[in-house]
Amino acid sequence: MDQNLAYLREVLSNYTEENDLMREINHKIEQGHYASEGAFVRDLSEEEIRSLESILDNEINHANEAGDLERGYQLNGVFELLY
């Protein structure tokens, strides 16, 4: 699994119990066997993209504020492709 997607999957695990859409996105990562984050993003619906944009913006800021620059960098790799 692509490293960026591994970080994304970890982040999504915080949202899957309360959010059906995040659970579906997480399932796509688990079952999709995507070669890259680009292939994953191309498989998302507009609704999934909008939801991920919001979550990733918050998670990237949190990672950077906590000094986890690697996590912020990896999540940003997915975030940039959403646009």
TrEMBL record:
It comes from the Bacteria. Pfam families: CsgA. InterPro entries: CsgA (IPR020255). This is Sporulation protein.
